[in-house]
Specification:
Layout lengths: L2 H10 L4 H8 L3 H8 L7 H8 L5 H14 L1
Helix pairs in contact: 1-5, 2-3
């Protein structure tokens, strides 16, 4: 997962970096580093993301629009 997609997921869930960090059990610094591609999404973080409850189909549509606006 790219930092761009990670950031889009956070925006899709309508959360701040602090809220997303708390939900995933990560530090704010880790969220920032992932979003700016200074840190890769590890298998541990991917597992935490997999536990989130969101509509994947709706997210992918959102992500396409998010990318166009970037």
């Amino acid at each position: 997962m790219t930092g761009d997609k990670f950031c889009a997921l956070r925006h899709f869930m309508n959360q701040t970096q602090v809220e997303f960090a708390n939900e995933l059990g990560l530090s704010l610094a880790t969220i920032g580093k992932i979003e700016t591609d200074r840190l890769q999404v590890t298998p541990r973080v991917k597992a935490k993301l997999a536990r989130l409850n969101y509509d994947e189909e709706a997210f992918f549509a959102f992500y396409e629009n998010f990318r166009r606006l970037s």
